[in-house]
Write a structure and sequence with these properties.
It is built from 15 helices and 17 strands. Strand 10 and strand 11 form a beta hairpin.
C-alpha cells in the first residue's frame, strides 16, 4: 500500500519545483479544518543544517515530556521517515489511513486550481498536508517542522510558529530562490511570524541585516548566536564531540553529541535556544538536555557505515555543505588516504562543491545515483578533473561498482585495517540514501 501511495505522490509535481504561491496549500488546510493550528510549532529553515537541527529540537522537546511530531525532508530511503511521532516514523498502516482520509480533499483542491488555470497540488504539498493532519489526529503536544525549500512560499509556511529558526543562509536553489544572498535571505525570512521568537544562527552581515529587519517589521524577537547563546567549548570525542553550550539563561556542560563537526555543535546551540524559548525561557533540566543530545541520530550526516576501511556517508549537496563536511573530516578523522564517491544533481554548483572537498580528498570516483536528476557521470567527471586533475579522477557509472572501486583505491599499497584509509560517499540526499540502502544491509565476505 505504501508503495502505491508513493507512486501516486511521484506522479505529481516534483518537490524540486515550487510556484511562488501558497494559495493551494491555504485552501487545502481550510477544507481539512486547519489541522496545523491545533498544536504549537517550532519552524526551521536555512540552507544547511535544517534537518539536523529539527531532529535535535524534537529530541529536546521529547526529553522534556512532550509528545512530539517531527516533519523533515527529503527522506533517505522510506517516505515515512518524513513523518515521525516521538522520534519514530509513522507506521505503514497509519500512513495508508491518513492518505485515504485526505485524498478526496486533494482531488477537490486539484480541481479548483486546474479550473483556474493553475497546477495541481505538488508531491510536497500533499505530503505536508498528510503530516499536519496526522499530527492533529494523534494528537501531539508540539511539532518540529523543517521547511522544504525557501520559506515564504514553502508548503509548511501555513503554520503559526511559536519559534522560528533560521540556520546559516548560503547560495543554493538559486534558480528558484534568487541568485544573491539577500534574495535568498528574504525568501527564508518569510517564516518569521509576528510576536514569535526567532533563533538566528551565525550569518553573513548582509543576511543578518535582512533577518533583523524582518523581525522588526513583524514584531518578532531575534535571538542571535554569539549574543544570546553560543557554543562555549567543544572537544572531539569518540563517535562525536563533547560540548559546553551557553543557552538563553544558563550554561549546559558535559553534553555528548554523537555527531561530527563544528557545524553540528552550532546546530545544537540553535536547537537548545529554540527549545528554551519555546518552553518559556527558563533553564532546562540538565539531565534531560544531556539525554536528548546523546540520543540524537541524523542518518546520512557524516555517518560511519563500515570500517576497514572506514566508509562515511554524507548528504552534503551544495558548496556550503561541502565546506562544513571537509572541516568536520579534518577535525574528527585522521585519514592518510580518503577517496570520495560523488554523484550530484544536475544544476548544482559541482565545481565549487568539489573544490571545497579538495583539501581532504585524495581521489574522486564519479558515478550516478538512482535519481533521474543525477548529473551525467562523464560531464561531472570533466568538472572533477578541473579540480583534482586527470590522474585523481575516475568515472564509474554504476553506483555499486563505484563504491567497490573507491575501496580498492583506498587500499592500494596499504593495510585495510589501518584506520587512516577511508571512503566518503556524498553529493546529494539521493546518493546518501542509495549508499545506506546498499551498505547497511547484511552482506557476506570482507567487512
Amino acid at each position: 500500500m505504501v508503495s502505491d501511495i508513493e507512486a501516486a505522490l511521484k506522479a505529481r509535481w516534483p518537490e524540486n519545483r515550487m510556484e511562488p504561491d501558497i494559495a493551494r496549500m491555504v485552501a487545502l488546510m481550510d477544507v481539512l479544518g486547519d489541522p496545523q493550528l491545533s498544536y504549537p510549532v517550532i519552524h526551521v529553515t536555512g540552507t544547511n543544517g535544517k534537518t539536523s537541527t529539527t531532529r535535535m529540537i524534537e529530541a529536546l522537546l521529547r526529553s522534556n515530556g512532550l509528545r512530539t511530531g517531527l516533519y523533515t525532508s527529503p527522506h533517505l530511503q522510506d517516505v515515512r521517515e518524513r513523518i515521525c511521532f516521538d522520534g519514530e516514523p509513522i507506521d505503514e498502516e497509519r500512513f495508508a489511513e491518513i492518505y485515504v482520509e485526505t485524498a478526496p480533499y486533494f482531488d477537490l483542491i486539484d480541481s479548483r486550481s486546474e479550473a483556474e488555470g493553475g497546477p495541481a497540488l505538488s508531491y510536497f504539498e500533499v505530503l505536508t498536508a498528510m503530516a499536519f493532519a496526522a499530527f492533529a489526529d494523534a494528537p501531539i503536544d508540539a511539532a518540529a517542522v523543517e521547511v522544504g525549500l525557501g520559506g515564504t512560499w514553502d508548503a509548511t509556511n501555513v503554520v503559526k510558529s511559536q519559534v522560528s529558526v533560521i540556520m546559516p543562509v548560503d547560495l543554493d536553489h538559486t534558480e528558484i530562490l534568487g541568485d544573491t544572498y539577500v534574495d535568498i535571505a528574504l525568501e527564508k525570512s518569510g517564516i518569521i511570524k509576528a510576536g514569535a521568537a526567532t533563533v538566528i544562527a551565525e550569518q553573513r552581515e548582509d543576511v543578518l541585516d535582512v533577518l533583523l529587519a524582518r523581525c522588526e517589521e513583524v514584531g518578532a524577537t531575534p535571538l542571535q548566536q554569539g549574543i544570546d547563546f553560543e557554543v562555549l567549548e567543544r572537544m572531539v570525542a569518540f563517535g562525536g564531540q563533547q560540548l559546553t553550550l551557553r543557552g538563553l539563561t544558563s550554561v549546559y556542560d558535559e553534553i555528548y553529541l554523537p555527531l561530527f563537526g563544528e557545524h553540528q555543535a552550532n546546530n545544537a546551540a540553535c536547537a537548545l535556544a529554540a527549545v528554551e524559548s519555546f518552553l518559556g525561557g527558563d533553564r532546562l533540566d540538565i539531565e534531560f538536555v544531556r539525554e536528548a543530545f546523546a540520543a540524537v541520530r541524523v542518518p546520512g550526516r557524516l555517518e560511519v557505515v563500515r570500517t576497514s576501511p572506514t566508509v562515511i556517508v554524507d548528504a552534503a549537496h551544495n558548496p556550503h555543505g561541502a565546506r562544513s563536511l571537509a572541516e568536520a573530516i579534518g577535525d574528527s578523522f585522521s585519514f592518510e588516504r580518503l577517496v570520495a564517491v560523488v554523484s550530484m544533481f544536475e544544476g548544482k554548483d559541482a565545481l565549487r562543491f568539489l573544490d571545497a572537498l579538495s583539501s581532504v580528498v585524495d581521489t574522486v570516483v564519479v558515478t550516478r545515483n538512482s535519481s533521474p536528476r543525477a548529473f551525467d557521470p562523464d560531464e561531472l567527471g570533466e568538472i572533477a578533473i578541473e579540480v583534482f586533475g586527470d590522474d585523481r579522477v575516475e568515472v564509474v557509472p554504476n553506483f555499486s561498482n563505484a563504491i567497490a572501486r573507491a575501496v580498492d583505491i583506498a587500499e592500494e599499497g596499504g593495510d585495510s585495517s589501518i584506520s587512516g584509509l577511508g571512503v566518503l560517499i556524498t553529493g546529494s540526499v539521493a546518493t546518501a540514501g542509495d549508499a545506506l540502502k546498499l551498505l547497511k544491509r547484511p552482506r557476506r565476505g570482507r567487512e
